Each structure stands twice: as C-alpha cells, then as structure tokens.
Amino acid sequence: MPAIINPFDASGFGLAEMTESLNLQPNTYGRINRLGLFSDAGVTQTTVLIDIKEGVMNLLPSIARGGPATVANRDSRSIRSLVIPHIPHNDVVTPDDIQGIRAFGSRDGSDTLARVMDDRLSRLRMKHGQTLEYMRIQALKGVLKDGAGLTLVNFFTEFGVTKKTVDFVLGTSTTDVAGKVREVKRYIAKNLNGENMTGVRAIVSPTFWDKFIRHDTVKDAYKFFNDTRGNPMREDMREGFTFHGVTFEEYDATFTLADGSTEDAFAASAGIAFPEGTTDTFKTHYAPANWMETVNTIGIPLYARQVARQDGTGIDVLSQSNPLPICRRPKVLVELTSSN
After folding, report:
1. What tens digit of pLDDT does each residue of 235-279 get?
2. Strand pairing of 199-204 and 270-276?
3. Helix axes 110-140, 15-23, angle to 10 degrees
4. Collapsing DSSP states into helix, strand and coil, what is residue 142?
5. Is 229 left (phi over 0), alpha (psi -120 to 50) or beta?
6. CA 294, CA 317: separation in Å to the nearest integer?
7. What would the DSSP string read from start to end of 85-124?
8. Hey, what domains does the chain have and what are their CATH numbers?
9. What's the 3-state SS for 207-270?
10. Rounded CA gap, 336 and 313, in Å?
C-alpha cells in the first residue's frame, strides 16, 4: 500500500515558497494601501526603540556588542520601546477539499491541489491585508490598534503633544471654509520639523464629504472643478477634490473586528488631514515570524508555511504578520470635524 503523498512538499511548498506565494498575492484591500503613504521597513527584533524629541520619533540603530552606543540628545524627552503586534492566522486543506479530484496515491491532480492552495493563500492575504488597512487608518488618526479594536498605543500621549482639531462648522452657511483649509495647511507645514511634503490630503466620512461639497462657499468650486478624472457634473469625484490646495476624499469603510462587531473608519462628520509625499513620517515596521527558521532575520510583511497533520486528516496552512504602522510625527495630523 503506497504512502500518502504530501503534494505540497512534492511541489516545493516549503517556508520560503509559501511565504513568497502569499506575498505575491495582489494588494487590493484598501485605499490607504493604494495611496502608498506608508513605507515598509523590516527589523530583526520584536520591538522598536524610539527616541521622542519635540514630537518627532527617531529610530535607534542596533549596535554590535561592545561597539559605541548612540547618545541621547540633551533635550530628548524619553526613549520608549514599542512592541510589534503579532498577528497569526491559520487555515487548513482537508480531504474534502480535493475528494474526487485525484485518485489515492497518484499525482494526477497536482494542478487542482495547487489551485486549492492558491485559494487558501488568497483568503489569508485578504484578511491580513484588511487588518493592516485598519491599523494604518488608525495610525493616521494617531493611535495603534489591533484587529480587535484594542488601543495599544496613543502616539499623541507617547510623544507628549496635543492633537490639533479644526471644526469646519459646515452647518453654518457663512463659515469661511477656505480659511479653515488654510488653517489646516499652515499647521501641518509648521510642524513638519524638517520633513518634506508634496501636498496635503484629507480623508473624511461620507457625512463630512456631503456637507463639505454642498457648503455655500464650496459648491461652486466643486461644480467647476476639473482634473484628469473629469468633471463633477459627470464623474464621481469622491477620490479627490482639491480645494485651496488640500485634496479631500471620502473614505467609506466599515471593518469587521475580531469579535464580529463592526467599526466605521470615521465617526460621522469627521476626518483626518495629513501631509503627502513625505520621506519617513509614515512607516510600517515588520518583525520576523515567530518560527525557528526566521529568528533574527529581517521581517517581511507576511509569512506562510504548511504542516501535514500526523493523523493524515489534513494539512494546516499557517500564516502570520507582525506589523507596526506608525506616524513618526503626530503633530502633522489634524482631526477634522463639523459640529453642526
């Protein structure tokens, strides 16, 4: 009687191949990802040390044992250590997934098995991607949250800065909305602290968006706005309407948290403004996987591996991500609201 074949081992699906296949899945999971705000940086440890100075976070390098240590600036507030969240998520391939496709002991169904594996990896990628999108939108709001909605770090508190909030008062027809926009731009430019930017973007809730484009001082500018995507009289401009130098866009997303409850990306009549084209203000640090093969290696966005069950009832598909999305200059974040 022939031994049961593990088709994934036969096809070379080890840690490296599985991880590569998972990371090659298309990134189609959210607007923040497509904006490209957050640059990726892998680290070899599970924590990141930060030097907080005047509301700006500078990463500390690792030094060879016995080498000279870095010296904290005299006016540095503190040095803190942030733990990188660990997010494992698993799936399984069972005999029912391939039953009737391949004769016992043969390799005739390898293509079908590969498609089953690709389907599992796609679903894992989507869930990890949605989690990262949620964590990044929270980082834009100045906090680090996990997929359960738990606040792990408040960057405003950690950096000792006060969050800036601008009330647009969009329910009042005489509000100087252009003046509010200039206030946002000036505050961000003032607090870049040596950083560069190419512009300012504001992502807002659907309620804020509707109030904004209908305001008496905005609606004519919106009506006659024209760029490469077209004109608001014909096209949907919710992904970008520029008013007095700030590009506004609607962000309408509801996330399903780990416990099954839901959370809107923004409260009604709320949003966030931030600089675009920065060098290192927005980062996502990745720790290595919690597996022996990856100890002390540079972390990457996603990992995957497969393990055959000893009783032959299936093959576990294991995945994990260890991301830390951060805003290194929380003073450049401006909360937008409309009190009426």
Report:
1. 777 888 999 999 999 999 889 888 889 899 999 999 999 999 998
2. antiparallel
3. 60
4. coil
5. alpha
6. 17
7. P-EEEEEEE-HHHHTTTS-TT--TTHHHHHHHHHHHHHHH
8. 7-61+75-151+282-327 (3.30.2400), 162-280+330-337 (3.30.1930.10)
9. HHHHHHHHCCCCHHHHHCCCECCECCCCCCCCCCEEECCEEEEECCCEEECCCCCEEECCCCCE
10. 53
Euclidean distance between CA atoms 217 and 208, whole angstroms: 15
The type of residue at 157 is: T
Give the tokens for residue 30. Answer: 């959210």
Dihedral sign computed on CA atoms, order 93, 99, 102, 106: positive
| Rounded distance between C-alpha atoms, residue 196 and residue 36, angstroms | 16
Q: What is the pTM of this model?
A: 0.83
Q: Is 98 exposed, middle or buried (0-12, 13-18, 19+ CB in 10 A)?
A: middle
- Would you say 13 and 5 are in contact if contact means Cβ atoms under 8 Å apart? no
- Do 147 and 258 meet the contact criterion of CB atoms below 8 Å apart? yes
Sequence-ordered list of residues with C-beta below 8 angstroms from that of 182, at least 6 positions apart, any chain: 244
Q: How far is CA 138 from CA 143, 179, 193, 271, 322, in A?
A: 6, 27, 22, 11, 16
Among 203, 160, 157, 142, which residue's Cα sits nearest to residue 332?
Answer: 142
Maximal C-alpha separation, the chain: 85
Give the H or E element holding residue 78: strand 78-83
pLDDT tens, residue by residue, 206-227: 999 999 999 999 999 988 887 6
The phi and psi torsions of 188 (rounded to 5 degrees) equal -65, -45
